[in-house]
Amino acid sequence: MTVGFVMLCHTALDRAAQVARHWATSGCPVVIHVDARVKRQAYDGLMADLADLENIRFSARFACEWGTWGIVAATQAASTIMLREFADVRHVFLASGSCLPLRPVSELVAYLDERPRTDFIESVTTEDVGWTIGGLNIERFTLRFPFSWRRQRRLFDGYVRLQRQIGFKRRIPDGIVPHLGSQWWCLTRQTLSAILDDPERPAHDRYFKRVWIPDESYFQTLVRLVSSTVESRSLTLSKFDFQGKPHIFYDDHLQLLRRSDCFVARKIWPDADKLYGAFLSPEGGSAPAAEPNPGKIDRLFAKAVERRTKGRGGLYMQSRFPNLDWENGKTAAPYSVFEGFAELFENFEIWLGKVAGTRVHGHLFGPDRVHYAGGETIYNGAMSDSASLRDYNPKSFLCNLIWNTRGERQCFQFGPRDAQRIGEFLARDPNAQISVISGAWAIPLFKSNRNFGEIRREAAYLQKVEAEHLNVLRALESKARVRIWTLAEFVDNPMEPLQTIVDEISPRATRRLTEAPCMTDLAGFGQFLQNLRNQGMQPTLMGDFPVGDDTRPKGPARRGRPYLVK
Amino acid sequence: MGLWATYRLRLARKRWRARAFLKRRELRPFSNRTSLIRPTDILLFSTMRNEKVRLPYFLRYYRDLGINHFLIVDNDSDDGSREYLAEQPDVSLWTTKASYKRSRFGVDWLNWLQSRYGHNHWTLVVDPDEFFIYPFCDTRPLKALCDWLDASSIKSFSAMLVDMYPKGPIGGQPYREGQDPFEIAQWFDSGNYTLAKNKRFGNLWIQGGPRARVFFADAPERSPALNKIPLVRWRREYAYVSSTHMLLPRGLNLVYDEWGGEKASGALLHAKFLDTFAAKAEEELQRRQHYANSHEYKAYKAGLNESPDLWCKWSEKYINWRQLEILGLMSKGNWA
């Protein structure tokens, strides 16, 4: 008993001939169907090429346009010849001209000899398939498809829509339960002849001629009527990408294919000389008899499809530039923005870097230059510290920084003195953890040695800028993790918010904060605010600071680190 | 995009094509071997001037990649480039003494040659200092990429320009004829590129890299564009608009995915910063034949006088295409 190969060819006939010769010389009969659209000359060349082999036949030619009946007609014709002419064939293996055997034919024959009654054909009910393109599952069987999907896409889609609207439905013949599956199967003589010689065949053919992509449903459906043992998988390794076109194998897949232990793979790039050389040589694949195991290849191609459809979150590059809110991660990783902290606490950046174990930058959007951690003038990815380069495209700047440093959380300071254009992006980015002590920008003014008129002017300006920024943070579209305290609130109880923020930054460090940052001396700040009021400016963002000198809302003077938490 | 805008782009495309048609008279065939071109050949188009020292490696690199025929316009070389190219069996050569600037930096000439000889071919348009890399370029020939693009109904392929530079002064290591320029210019900037969309033509506008960092920090809007679409399944109605940065019809510029995914893309390694650069900058400044009154070259010259080293401690040393893929400068897309 042996296995016969039916080959459907339309391009790269020289490769098809090579594979047909390989099978035929290994003692397996081959019936070749060549697409009617192939030129006569090429067809004659193929016939002449294989003329010396007596167990090769050529079947009547049909035009095999993708998704049409021609492919099934060709399969039927070639299979009929196979069953008629080669009596010792027990299994018929449907292959294409771009298939390549990965294991010696003897192993396939042995494998099939152990399973003499089994039909290998992927056959899944329409409810259970998730891979059909165009969203058409059961509708393949109930609508009409007079237009070509490849060449007349608009008409195709329009006609489908129209039929859905008016509720048109073809009747599925009695006894037929639509199944779908890979086009490439391996059926027993009994099953195949039962399908081909079925008295109902004219009716079946008439029905399936108008089904869309019948090569993925004709045998897959009918096999359920006649076969006793259907093994619903294909012996042909064939993977499809998100557009429904098969992945192609190249020379560099050699090891992967060897390890897959599959019998036949498609589709092979015609110029993959190394693959054809390796697998068609007499010693061929030498692995011991094993079950086909395409897991590795599955993963490789699944990853490729994911790369194409989801991409790498937070990456903006020449071939990935997502529309707003389609970024699948506006930035590559979570990061923290601190507003007002560096003003309120002395050496806040050093403290934060120590307790949270992250990279803490200064004012990245500072007006003079980019203040990277450690005063660096150039940073990961060769990013410049030039303010004008940064302000040319602040969004690119930030996304680049987060992308370049992925794996290490970034924290930076922000405030109303900084370039503000990035504010809106920060607010919309779910990766941003933004903590604001509003009004803290007044502290440097309070400490400065400048004329009060100047201070008043600047205070008014900074307050306006920060108020606008806070509006953006509080807006409905805001997706960032935003926390806002007034200066008065925060000074009143600094440890709890700090603990929360640090916990969020490094969730694994379960320790309580034992070392608090050193708060700057605010003695006289209340009076300073009152002076601003007296000058006609209304400082609102700081919250309620009592005017009385040094009498802070609670308790003793807080210079140094008196409030350690046990 | 409204009908009116579409119509105006159509007119613009016709105008560029008409211009190319007129400019064809400036080209004199020097050695025309285009009769050797077979229907499935992959063609390379280039304009050059005095690049003799680069040519041997350039031709070898692209022959190894699988380019079948080179179509080159020589803009009045006097260093023997012309004679060298005329000897090559797979090169067709045209010469011209006309103004590079007034042919829009060679675009008009190449648009003409492409519409004449490139119809229905995959065409690669590169300068002699640009080296095309793409996913799997170390194991799969260019034809594999083109076949895959055909099968995926993709008509144009993006390859961003990546400026390569040596460590130390640019003129520090002399470049020998035939040498791989990336033995010297091994370094590049990995993550300082800015992107914006060009609404009118639909292409992305990419800037950054060492040139922006060192020469254009104070005028970032003038820093050179790095977005390129050099590989196109050409049809005679197509036209490059500005260098290979963008084309018409504008659908060809949509080489990027807008719904979060990544399309496949490559890179053009730019071997501009070799010891030949200073002389070139000098010459181009005198000829004033480059883009926007050669302000690029002026900036380079000013920049190079004060800071001769493009290298910094975050520079990345080039290894292979996979490295660029991981860094996010190019992508495999769904090619596996």
TrEMBL record, chain A:
<keyword id="KW-1133">Transmembrane helix</keyword>
<dbReference type="InterPro" id="IPR043538">
    <property type="entry name" value="XYLT"/>
</dbReference>
<keyword id="KW-1015">Disulfide bond</keyword>
<dbReference type="GO" id="GO:0016020">
    <property type="term" value="C:membrane"/>
</dbReference>
<protein>
    <recommendedName>
        <fullName>Peptide O-xylosyltransferase</fullName>
    </recommendedName>
</protein>
<feature type="domain" description="DUF5927">
    <location>
        <begin position="266"/>
        <end position="566"/>
    </location>
</feature>
<keyword id="KW-0328">Glycosyltransferase</keyword>
<keyword id="KW-0472">Membrane</keyword>
<dbReference type="GO" id="GO:0015012">
    <property type="term" value="P:heparan sulfate proteoglycan biosynthetic process"/>
</dbReference>
<keyword id="KW-0808">Transferase</keyword>
<dbReference type="GO" id="GO:0046872">
    <property type="term" value="F:metal ion binding"/>
</dbReference>
<keyword id="KW-0325">Glycoprotein</keyword>
<keyword id="KW-0812">Transmembrane</keyword>
<keyword id="KW-0256">Endoplasmic reticulum</keyword>
<dbReference type="GO" id="GO:0050650">
    <property type="term" value="P:chondroitin sulfate proteoglycan biosynthetic process"/>
</dbReference>
<feature type="compositionally biased region" description="Basic residues">
    <location>
        <begin position="555"/>
        <end position="566"/>
    </location>
</feature>
<dbReference type="GO" id="GO:0030158">
    <property type="term" value="F:protein xylosyltransferase activity"/>
</dbReference>
<feature type="region of interest" description="Disordered">
    <location>
        <begin position="542"/>
        <end position="566"/>
    </location>
</feature>
<dbReference type="InterPro" id="IPR003406">
    <property type="entry name" value="Glyco_trans_14"/>
</dbReference>
<keyword id="KW-0333">Golgi apparatus</keyword>
<dbReference type="InterPro" id="IPR045971">
    <property type="entry name" value="DUF5927"/>
</dbReference>
<dbReference type="Pfam" id="PF02485">
    <property type="entry name" value="Branch"/>
</dbReference>
TrEMBL record, chain B:
<dbReference type="GO" id="GO:0016740">
    <property type="term" value="F:transferase activity"/>
</dbReference>
<protein>
    <submittedName>
        <fullName>Glycosyltransferase family 2 protein</fullName>
    </submittedName>
</protein>
<keyword id="KW-0808">Transferase</keyword>
<dbReference type="Pfam" id="PF13704">
    <property type="entry name" value="Glyco_tranf_2_4"/>
</dbReference>
